[in-house]
């Protein structure tokens, strides 16, 4: 009996594993992980180990992918804190012209972070004090409102911008990497970017 097909199926294992390791998109990686598990279960079946194949299919593939999907879905989120009511304005294109800049900002952030496979989620807060507290307590990754959520002199870094220009919204983040990503894009006409170091604020307050 020709067993060459077994070697062909087995050869797919390192190929799928290599594709999984070098995959950048986490959602594509989930699909490849499922393919890898299915190939492994098939190999176990062909080699006469149906019990191991069943375990691989149920635990190593189905359960593992489910847990990975939940983890990826919950972790790849850019949480942007806004004042209550403004999250509805950002979604309503027919609202007053005053709401257009925030809508443009959300759309721009969505485009910027799509390359990093992050989705933008708006988190509403009642007032600026609560918005500031959420940023300091790491409930959100950044905040956005029409006024600064931090006081002057609180370890803030701002990019250079024309003196005559005053963006309608100010976006403040506590993560340097996110600040660098947003600062590298052309967001100046929509928002003024700020970076604040929570640890520096804690040292000043203490």
Please write out the topology.
Blueprint: H1 4-21, H2 26-46, H3 50-75, E1 77-83, H4 86-91, H5 100-114, E2 119-125, H6 128-136, E3 142-145, E4 156-157, E5 169-173, H7 176-184, E6 191-196, H8 198-205
Parallel strand pairs: 1-2, 1-3, 5-6
Antiparallel strand pairs: 3-5, 4-6
Helix pairs in contact: 1-2, 2-3
Give a short account of the largest sheet. Answer: 6 strands, mixed
Helix count, per DSSP? 8
Between the first and last Cα atoms, what is the distance in angstroms? 78 Å
Name the poorly predicted regions: 93-99, 148-165
Strand content: 15-25%
User: If strands are numbered along the chain, what order do they take across the biggest sheet?
Assistant: 2-1-3-5-6-4
CATH top level assignment of the largest domain: Alpha Beta
Structural class: alpha/beta
Order of helices and strands: HHHEHHEHEEEHEH
Please give the oligomerization state of what you see: single chain
CATH architecture of the largest domain: 3-Layer(aba) Sandwich
Residue share in helices?
Answer: 40-55%
pLDDT averaged over residues: 79
Structure description:
- The protein is an alpha/beta fold.
- The protein has two domains: about 5-75; about 75-205, D-Maltodextrin-Binding Protein, domain 2, CATH 3.40.190.
- About 55% of the residues lie in helices and about 15% in strands.
- It contains eight helices and six strands; from the N terminus they run αααβααβαβββαβα.
- A six-stranded mixed sheet has the order 2-1-3-5-6-4.
- Helix 7 (about 175-185) links the parallel strand 5 and strand 6 (about 190-195).
- Helix 1 runs antiparallel to helix 2.
- It is elongated, with a radius of gyration of 24 Å.
- The model is unreliable at about 95-100 and about 150-165 (pLDDT under 50).
